[in-house]
Amino acid sequence: MPIPDDIRAYNASQAPIESRICDALCRAIDHRLPGAERKIWHRHPVWFLDGNPIVGYSKLKDCIRLLFWSGQSFEEPGLRPEGSFKAAEARFTAPDQIVLGDLERWLTKSIDIQWDYKNIVKRKGKLQRLK
User: What pLDDT sits at residue 91?
Assistant: First the structure.
């Protein structure tokens, strides 16, 4: 399935190096999560499984941040905790910093290890493990 126009536009709107990082992340994510819903959510590309946010990336001041909503549970040294829930991130300033083997492993874990962010408001801020 082709990449949605809004995600392609997001990637193209970045500076040249950052656009290449976004394109590389997008291709890898889309390849590993072929059935996922993907869209611009809170102004950046995010992939969802059954309505639950799994992975996305965004432009920060000095890098592109790859975020896995359940990433702290992956127990991966290449991912750093982000925020007060279960998210973890990796940051990139050049396309060659993306290690495809690591990224594919993280994406596989993102399918197998999920916390229920879709219902976090209904549960008043409490996360429940799905898988």
Answer: 98
34 three-state secondary structure: coil
Angle value at C-alpha 59, between 4 and 37, nearest 5 degrees: 30
Residues 75-103: pLDDT tens digits? Answer: 999 999 998 899 999 999 999 999 999 99
pTM above 0.90, yes or no: yes
Model confidence pLDDT, tens digit, residues 4-21: 999 999 999 999 999 999
Output the DSSP codes for 92-123.
ESSGGG--HHHHHHHHHHHHHS-B--TTTTTT
Q: Which among 5, 12, 110 is positioned nearest to 56, based on CA atoms? A: 110
Q: Kindly list the distances between the CA atom of residue 29 and the CA atoms of 106, 107, 108, 125, in Å, as whole numbers in the listed order.
A: 10, 7, 10, 27
CATH class of 5-112: alpha beta
Q: Ramachandran region of residue 125, left (φ > 0), alpha (ψ -120 to 50) or beta?
A: left
Q: Does 41 have pLDDT greater than 90?
A: yes
Strand ranges across the sheet with 80-81: 37-41, 44-49, 52-59, 64-68, 88-92, 80-81
